[in-house]
Amino acid sequence: MIQIPIEQHRLDNGLRVVLSRDPEAAVVAVNLWYAVGSRNERAGRTGFAHLFEHMMFQGSAHVPETAHFAFIEQAGGSLNGSTWLDRTNYFETLPSNYLELGLWLESDRMGWLLDALTQEKLDNQRDVVKNERRWRVDNQPYGDWDERIQEMVFPPDHPYHHSLIGSMEDLDAASLQDVEQFFRTFYAPNNAVLTIAGEFDPGEAMRLVEGYFGPIPCGPAVPPIPGCTAAPPLIGEEVRLRIEHDVSLPRMYVAYRIPPYGSIEWYAAEVAAHVLAAGQGSLLTRRLVRGRMLAQDVVAFALPLVAGASMLTLWVTGRPGVEPERLEPAVFEELASLRQVSDDDVARAASLLEARHLVDLQKMDNRADLLSQFATLFGDPGRLNTELDRLRAVTPADVRGFAERYLGQDNRAVLWYLPRGGAA
Amino acid sequence: MSEARTFDRSRAPTPGPVRPFRFPHVERALLDNGLTVLTARHGRLPVVTAALVLEAGAAAEPAERAGLAQLVAHALDAGTRTRSADEVAWALERLGVEFNADAHWDAAILSIVTPRDRLEPALELFAEIAREPAFRAEEVERLRDEQLAEILQRQKEPGALAADRAPGFIFAPGVPYRRPLGGTYGSVAAIGVEDVRAFYRGWYAPRGASLLVVGDIDAATACTLAESRFGDWTGQPGARPSFEVRPGVQRATVFVIDRPGSVQSEIRVGDVGLERGHPDYVPLQVMNSLLGGAFTSRLNMNLRERHGFTYGAHSGFAFRRRPGPFLIQTAVATEVTARATEEILREVRRLRDEAAPEAEVAASRDYLAGTLPLELQTTEQLAGRLADLVVHDLPDDYFDRNRQQILAVTAADVQRVAREHLRPERFAIVVVGDAGAIVPGLEALGIGPVEVHQGPAQEPV
Fold first, then answer.
1. Do B71 and B181 have their domain in common?
2. Helix, strand, or coil here: B26?
3. Most exposed residue of A30, B18, B252, B266, measured as fewest CB within 10 angstroms of its CB?
4. Interchain CB contact of B404 with A (< 8 Å)
5. A101 in contact with B at a CB cutoff of 8 Å?
6. Which residues contact B353 (CB under 8 A, 6 or more apart)?
């Protein structure tokens, strides 16, 4: 199997650096993971980690407002950032002769963001994020499913219980002081991983990394995640919600609490999700979409969450005229069949996972993001090269055992969206 | 360079020497049946993408069966002469092969991406799907009903609703681009299995089609495989559709699609754009990059970064064989709908009325000229570029030459194409939003008449 070359360093200020060279690539990807996400937010500040991410693009001591995007685009590069429950990442892919530009920009906001902070910028990005919320959540059919499912699957004191994008009230409450405090707490080299992947000279790259990031002081110890990450392994009883919404077709979301990413059971869950819904040959597509023609589409995935617990989520959209009362038992019947899953079903899922892994590694930005991920979550970027072994080690008996233990009625959240004023 | 070099962070570092980037070398071969095989070696991972580009796009379907081309493409892998839908899926996926098929306006594109060591069996299955689809009635009807249900879903998604409705105002009746690619509820409901079979017989044929093979493979091997799987396929598609493209409005008009309670307005400012082969294609790319093609474009800087009206604003030309739509698109908070519309029009006028600063034009040129290496990292991305060459009859060295053409565009070119091709006096401005809340403000702008249309009628289910 493919082995991606990996070199690791650590600066005196605690910044972990991962280098992965591919001399055939024409581009270089720069990727930073900060070990902070919505799980680190305090009560009354939901959505803050994401709002903060927006502030990181508003300039820093030596980078004028809006210049961050302009520098990268003018170089022919692409860039973005994203906020997740466990982390926030920032990344740019550049023609390989622009590596230094990426390092300059990333180091400047890691070290000197607050010098350029203004109330005006915060107010502007607060409006942008509120529009992002409207666009993704409030103005979309089924748009709030993930907020609702998180609340149903994780206990109230669990850091995954609350919304990632945050409530409008909490976004309104965010202050400049919050930005400063968040920055000083979480945005320090000792809480970050920097990965460079693609075409570059490793010696020169480390010299540049030392030069740009070395002067940034190490931050204080990162405080523990608020709340309680130690949730019981199962939800304990079925949690259920039915809501009428402005949707055309009824859709059922089902989520199960599962062990966190990295555990042996999590890999079984990942394989199970692929058995269930990846590809036209998947179990739910064969039986519910084609065979019984009850469903319009099916989706399933195991989220890679690490703070104490994670979840396996699926959704099934009913075909027009199919009542929820018919669809739901059919879904649970097929899910129950996972307890006797065939060897072939598991082999099919493994083949798809293996091929997708290979295809994804073509992109330097994907490589860099995965290396940052493994370094941040497990302290070992080398897991990129062993991840497939973990998935391939999952036997059909493991999937059956996983289904038996975790996919029961006592561990599921069931969320129905029904067309307002009657079914389509 | 010296170890003692200090790091001056007060300004952006200068880039290293440019590493020349060339578009991968393309080998062409023509089989006796008229199928062209294009091969390009690419990347270092053992991955191959194969794609068939066929003259079976939506422009070829009968208007009263709109959505047919897409249904045919989606039904290809739902069973072959010798395999059921389950068996086709199973055979592909046991190998880890992903299959996709979609109809665009100008072509249908079928593709597989596969690990190199499974290419031979993967290509055998690929050929079987492309050449011997069964189109069994029960599968075709199921997929048709799924396409109908998808139309219902899109009616509730404001962005999709805007995308589906805008062309109906931009283009005159009779222009194929007026209809949604997936068809309307009525046109799809009318499709029968015989329509599907007839469209396939008429348009899925090797003559004039192309097989793209990209990745960890050499041209000789690719041609041998192509010959063995597609060499004895025969047939010729119908003539490329030809039609006039005319605008649906003669003066600027606002069309509000009422969506009561909507907390945002989806705005689409549209016009008939230009065909891919238009001589102004290159300066138009640069002009659009200033206007709304990138994050730092004027529209996004204004609506998002200055005013906070939106999460993002973009513009673009859909370049097809015939003039596709030009669209500016954004979703804004309901209460700022009129102000955002005004700002959009202001930016369009500014680009027409004032020569853009040279530095801004240079930034757009550099962005467009420099971004190709990033967009050619994968076999799928390269296959997509080759499909562009094939669909639009472009030479194999097109992308290398395009870079030089982009770098030659001046501020005067940008202003000229803005003046010629951005015509605010005949924009169709389509707004999906809460009519009661937004119509007075839109009327007060004085752009032109404001028509209120109902959201989708309750379709029969």
1. yes
2. coil
3. B18
4. no
5. yes
6. none
Among A293-302, B11-20, B89-98, the range scoring the smallest mean pLDDT is: B11-20
Which fold is adopted by the domain A239-419?
Cytochrome Bc1 Complex; Chain A, domain 1 (3.30.830)
CA distance B299 to A149: 36
User: In the Cβ-directed half-sphere of B248, how many Cα atoms lie within 13 Å?
Assistant: 25
The token duo for B300 is: 């996004």
Rounded Cα gap, residues B342 and B196, in angstroms = 46
- Per the prediction, chain A carries an average pLDDT of 97
- Nearest chain B Cα to A124, which residue? B308
3-state secondary structure of A168: helix
Instruction: Give CA–CA dist B420/B405, Å, rounded.
Output: 20
Contact A18, A8 (CB under 8 A): yes
> In B, which residues are within 8 Å of A361 by CB distance?
45
Task: Work out the average pLDDT over B297-321.
Answer: 98
Same domain for B84 and B192, yes or no, is yes
Does residue B55 surpass a pLDDT of 50?
Answer: yes
CB atoms within 10 A of CB A92: 30
Residue A56 has, within 13 A of its CA and on its CB side, a CA count of: 28
Backbone φ, ψ for residue A262 (5° rounding): 105, -30
Q: Does A1 touch chain B (CB under 8 A)?
A: no
- The DSSP code for B333 is E
The CATH number of residue B313's host domain is 3.30.830.10
Beta-carbon count within 10 A of A393 CB: 14
Is the Cβ pair A358, B46 closer than 8 Å?
yes
Question: What gap in Å lies between CA A334 and CA A341, rounded to an integer?
Answer: 10
A-contacting residues in B 34-93 (Cβ below 8 Å): 43-47, 77, 85-86, 88-90, 92-93
Instruction: State in words which class domain A7-213 has.
Output: alpha beta
Pairwise CA distance, residues B427 & B253, whole Å: 7
Could you tell me if A351 lies within 8 Å of chain B, comparing CB atoms?
A: yes
Confidence band for B19, pLDDT divided at 50, 70 and 90: confident
Average pLDDT of span A333-349: 98
Among B84, B56, B52, B53, smallest CA distance to B196 is for: B56
pTM: 0.97
Same domain for B295 and B213: no
Domain assignment present for residue B3? The answer is no
**Is residue B178 in a domain?**
yes
- Asked whether the predicted pLDDT for residue A416 surpasses 80, the reply is yes
Identify the DSSP state of B17: P
**What tokens does B431 get?**
């707004």
Q: What is the pLDDT of residues B163-220, one digit of tens each?
A: 999 999 999 999 999 999 999 999 999 999 999 999 999 999 999 999 999 999 999 9
∠ CA(B274), CA(B276), CA(B281), 5° rounding? 75
Q: Is the pLDDT of residue B349 over 80?
A: yes
Nearest to B86 among A97, A104, A286 (CB): A286
Beta partners for residue B113, in sequence order: B49, B98
Restricting to A residues 171-230, those with a Cβ less than 8 Å away from any Cβ of B are 199, 207, 211-212
**Torsion (CA) B377, B379, B381, B385 in degrees, nearest 10:** 120
Contact B53, B387 (CB under 8 A): yes
A–B interface: beta-carbon pairs under 8 A: 230
Name the region of B297 (left: φ>0; alpha: ψ -120 to 50; beta: rest): beta
Q: Are B39 and B219 spatial neighbours (Cβ–Cβ below 8 Å)? A: yes
Backbone phi and psi for residue B53, each to the nearest 5 degrees, phi listed first: -110, 115
Q: Are A255 and A299 in contact (CB under 8 A)?
A: no
C-alpha gyration radius of chain B: 24
Domain hosting residue B125, numbered range: 27-230
Q: Could you give the count of Cα atoms lying within 13 Å of A234 in the half-sphere of its Cβ?
A: 14
CA distance B283 to chain A (A): 17
Q: Give the list of residues 6+ apart from residue B8 with CB closer than 8 angstroms, or none.
A: none
